[in-house]
């Protein structure tokens, strides 16, 4: 018999907005949801970037795929005492990234180009501005679709590793049990296994988001109980809601 769901651990930081989908899930299903990042980001220093033979003066455009890439580009620019010129073009993967850029630049005075959500949404813009020299500040972990897309378009681009994805210390959770563990990346699965090499799944349900996370969980020998996105449940909270409603009714 499958046990009812009372507790959930989400391997991400707690959402900052008050009325998040998780808040609604908690209210509706009367479950306890904790948030704990299984991975975190650490910046590399300017010396490490120089060793990658990257000179910020050589670029006319920056490709920004996340808020982390925004933060660490401007951090490195400051460490290198590089004054980012007003003529610099910014290609942002999503509106959220473009909006976050305002933390560093005066929005209306800059050349900012925005995709809808997926990296390929920028294709038309890359084709239009093919003569630019693009810098991609990234983590040491990069989705293959990014270099594949840029290479296929014949774009003049350089990748710089400006920050690294690091496994967080979760040793304080050693004796804590949750009914569901929620993962959003292969790195999260890696963190679970590094922190708890003797992890036995038993009655713990595993929820995963995205194909790469599904593959990582499967390769790790984990039983996947909840998957998202699907046509019926495009978000993780919707997938959790559907599962919990079904299980807790029994």
UniProtKB/TrEMBL annotation:
<dbReference type="Pfam" id="PF02602">
    <property type="entry name" value="HEM4"/>
</dbReference>
<protein>
    <submittedName>
        <fullName>Uroporphyrinogen-III synthase</fullName>
    </submittedName>
</protein>
<dbReference type="InterPro" id="IPR039793">
    <property type="entry name" value="UROS/Hem4"/>
</dbReference>
<dbReference type="GO" id="GO:0005829">
    <property type="term" value="C:cytosol"/>
</dbReference>
<dbReference type="GO" id="GO:0004852">
    <property type="term" value="F:uroporphyrinogen-III synthase activity"/>
</dbReference>
<dbReference type="InterPro" id="IPR003754">
    <property type="entry name" value="4pyrrol_synth_uPrphyn_synth"/>
</dbReference>
<dbReference type="InterPro" id="IPR036108">
    <property type="entry name" value="4pyrrol_syn_uPrphyn_synt_sf"/>
</dbReference>
<dbReference type="GO" id="GO:0006780">
    <property type="term" value="P:uroporphyrinogen III biosynthetic process"/>
</dbReference>
<feature type="domain" description="Tetrapyrrole biosynthesis uroporphyrinogen III synthase">
    <location>
        <begin position="22"/>
        <end position="237"/>
    </location>
</feature>
């Amino acid at each position: 018999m499958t046990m009812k769901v009372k507790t959930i651990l989400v391997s991400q930081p707690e959402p900052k907005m008050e009325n998040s989908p998780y808040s609604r899930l908690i209210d509706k299903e009367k479950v306890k949801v904790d948030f704990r990042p299984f991975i975190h980001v650490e910046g590399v220093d300017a010396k490490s970037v120089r060793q990658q033979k990257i000179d910020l003066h050589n670029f006319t455009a920056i490709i920004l795929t996340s808020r982390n890439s925004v933060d660490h580009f401007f951090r490195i620019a400051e460490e290198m005492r590089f004054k980012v010129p007003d003529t610099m073009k910014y290609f942002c993967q999503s509106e959220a990234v473009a909006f976050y850029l305002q933390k560093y630049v005066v929005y209306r005075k800059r050349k900012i180009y925005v995709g809808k959500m997926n990296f390929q949404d920028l294709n038309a813009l890359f084709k239009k501005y093919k003569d630019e020299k693009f810098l991609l500040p990234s983590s040491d972990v990069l989705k293959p679709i990014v270099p594949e897309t840029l290479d296929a378009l014949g774009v003049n681009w350089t990748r710089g590793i400006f920050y690294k994805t690091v496994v967080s210390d979760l040793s304080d959770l050693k004796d804590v049990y949750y009914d569901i563990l929620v993962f959003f990346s292969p790195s999260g699965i890696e963190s679970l296994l590094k922190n708890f090499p003797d992890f036995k799944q038993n009655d713990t349900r595993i929820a995963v988001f995205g194909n790469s996370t599904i593959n990582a969980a499967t390769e790790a020998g984990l039983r996947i109980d909840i998957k998202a996105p699907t046509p019926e449940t495009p978000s993780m909270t919707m997938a959790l809601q559907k599962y919990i409603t079904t299980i807790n009714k029994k």
